[in-house]
Amino acid sequence: MGQAPAGEAGIVGDVGDRVGGRVTMPRLRLPILNSAATLTVVGSLTVGGKMRIAYVPGASPGGRPPGPARGASSHPRLRSGDDSNRGTAGDARGEDPMSTSEALVAGQVIDTARYPLPDPASAGWTRVVSRVRHELQNHGCSVLPNFIRSSRRAALRLECAAIAPLAYYDVETVNAYNIATDASLPADHPGRIALRRGNAFVARDRIHEDFIIHQLYTDELFKYFIACCFELPQVHELADSLAGLCLNVLNPGMEHPWHFDTNEFTVSMLTQEPQAGGVFEYCPNIRSAQAENFADVRAVLAGRGGHLIRRLSLRPGDLQLFKGRYSLHRVTSVHGATARHCAIFAYCERPGVVGSVARTRQLFGRVLPEHLAAEGRAVRVDQLLD
Ligand SMILES: O=C(O)CCC(=O)C(=O)O
Ligand SMILES: [Fe+2]
Question: How far away, in angstroms, is 381 Cα from ligand 1 center?
Fold first, then answer.
C-alpha cells in the first residue's frame, strides 16, 4: 500500500482535533426527485460505531496515481461513455466501475423486481428512493427487505460465515459517545455510564472481491442509489483497505452496546441471524446537532427509556440505511448457538478517507502504511460529543 501523495493534507479525526463550523454542499438535483435538504458534510466517519477517520483530499488508495476517484457514484448508466468515473490503471482491485458488468452484478445479486437499481430512470427506482428518503427524514432509518435475491441469500450467508473466524476480537470498556471513559464529566453525564463491548470485525482485505458484499460495495449502481437515498451528491468507498467494508461478528453472549456513530449515515446488511437476541434497537433522533438531550439518553442507558426505543426485525439480505449520529442505537445480546453477522458498507461523501492509526489498531489489531500516512487534523461540523 502506498502513501498519500506528497503535499496533500491529511485530516485525522480525534476528540481534541475537531474544527467546528457547518459546511453545506449544493443540493442534490435529480430530474425525477425533489430533494429539499441542504447537506451537512462530516469530515469524520465511524466504522463499527467508533472509528474516527482521516480525510486526505485526493489521496489515492493503494498507491495509485492521483486521478479520478475510485468508484464515485455519479450517474452510472446516465453517463455511459464518460471516462471520468472509471477506475485507474493502478487500482489494485482492477475495478472498471462503468463497465456493463456493473448492471449485471446488480441484476444478479439484487432483487431488481423490487429494487430496480439498474434502471435509475424508472418509476420503480424513484418510488423506492422516495420511500427511503421519507423514512430517513422521519425516523432516521429505512430497511429494504429482501434486497438480495432469494437465490443468493444462502451464498451471502456462507461467504461471510467462512471469513467470520478472521475477525479481530477485543473487549473494551466504552460509553455511548466513544469518548474516553475516564473523561472528567459531570457526575450525572450519560458519558459516565461505562459499557462493555466485545469488538470483532473482519477487515476488508479479508473479504474476497467475488463475495456478494464486496460486489455490492463497489457497484456503481449501488453507490448511486445509496447517494440518492441519503440525498448526497455522491458517495465514495473509503480509501482504507481495512475499514471500507467489514463484517461485524457478534458471537453468542456478545452485544453491541448503546452508542452514537461518528458518521452521519451507515449502510449495513445482516448476513446471518442469531437464534435469539441480536436485535437492532434505536432511538430516532434522540439528539440533534444543536442539542445533546442528555436526559433522554441517560434514561435509555439506565433502562428507563423504553418509550423512546424502536426495534427492527432484520432478516439476512435486508439492506439497512441508518443515520446513526443522532439516533442512539445498539444490538442486544446474542443468544443461542449461532453468531450474528452484519456487513457494514462504509462510504464517505469525500474521496480519500482512511482511518486514524489509533482507531484502526483498535478495530483490526493492525495498521497499514496508508493509515500512518494520513495522520493529521480533523474537520468536524458540529460540537456534539462523539
Ligand atoms: O451490527 C449492526 O447492526 C449495527 C452495528 C453498529 O451500530 C455499528 O457498527 O456502528
Ligand atoms: Fe452504530
Answer: 22
